[in-house]
Amino acid sequence: MQVVFERFLEDLSESADEQDFQKAMSCAAANLDLAAFAYLSLPTHRSGKPRVISNYPDPWTTRYLHKRYHKLDPVVLRAQCGGHPFRWGSNLCGAGMSSSQRQVFDEAAEFRISCGLTIPIVDRRGGIAAVTFAADEPDPAFLRVAERYEQSLQFMATCFHIYVRRNLSGDRKVDGVSLTPREYECLQWAARGKSAWVIGRILGIKQRTVGFHLDNAKKKLGVRTQNQAIALLASSRSSAVSREVV
Questions:
Q1: Which of 56, 99, 108, 241 is the most exposed place for a label (fewest CB within 10 A)?
Q2: Model pTM score
Q3: pLDDT by residue for the chain (246 residues), tens digit each?
Q4: Are the beta carbons of 37 and 132 closer than 8 angstroms?
Q5: What does the alpha-carbon distance between residue 197 and residue 206 come to, in Å, rounded to a whole number?
């Protein structure tokens, strides 16, 4: 588990977009014999859209978001209350469920999502999210992993949420200094060892434009070199994670 967790943190620290984060969690879950996972972060406003990062089948994820099933899903409704990780399956399909809620479960089962372990997350900013590891049926192997690594999976889920919020939200602060989305994005790629030319190719902008954004970031951060700016970025990420997982 130690090796899996260390690799997971390394992958998170190098993730810059949703695809990177999806790969990081998919790899960690697979190494623990957990095939399917889904991260759902609820919007802060009623009209907002949830963020979903998962390796569930795309047709199911698309349907789930289009029909706004997060407002009906009994698993999500329970996760909103916070608390400890919980297992679910036929135990949530009781008489108290509405026909619409039962429909969510029935449709999910069509995509081999019938039971799972869900980890509620309520962060210090009031954000609500959940990470679910799901299976087609509660086979002994799945149950053993869920029970044995429940605490570790909870810590992994929290780290995942913090890194996603830190890197994919509108909060682009480094060492307390706000950067523009493009300045932050260029600095992130530079921290991954990418040259200005490569960053330009990735972002679809000119190399000199990348240099312009990196120079602006350095000026705002009060440093002279790119390596110093990258060090501040790494320090800010580490501090944020340390504060929120303790």
A1: 99
A2: 0.72
A3: 889 999 999 998 888 788 999 999 999 999 999 989 999 999 877 777 899 999 999 999 999 999 999 999 999 999 999 999 999 987 666 657 888 999 999 999 999 999 999 999 998 778 899 999 999 988 888 888 888 999 999 999 999 998 888 777 666 778 888 888 788 889 989 999 999 999 999 888 899 999 999 999 999 999 999 999 999 998 876 665 555 555
A4: yes
A5: 8
Give me 202's structure tokens: 């990735």
Query: For residue 95, which phi and psi values (nearest 5 degrees)?
Result: -70, -20
- Across the chain, how many H-helices and E-strands are there? 11, 7
DSSP annotation of 45: S
Q: Are the C-beta atoms of residues 194 and 240 closer than 8 Å to each other?
A: no
Biggest CA pair distance of the chain: 65
Q: Which two tokens stand for residue 8?
A: 């997971």
Q: Quick count: other Cβ atoms within 10 Å of Cβ 25?
A: 26
Please, what is the Cα angle at 224 between 218 and 225, to 5 degrees? 85
Report the C-alpha dihedral over residues 238, 239, 240, 246, rounded to 10 degrees.
100
Strand partners for 135? 115
Alpha-helix runs per DSSP H in 67-206: 74-79, 99-110, 140-148, 150-168, 181-191, 196-203
Q: Which residues contact 213 (CB under 8 A, 6 or more apart)?
A: 180, 182, 183, 185, 186, 187
How far apart CA 175 and CA 229 sit, in angstroms, is 10
Q: ∠ CA 132-138-140 to the nearest 5 degrees?
A: 115
Rounded to whole angstroms, the Cα distance separating 51 from 164 reads 10
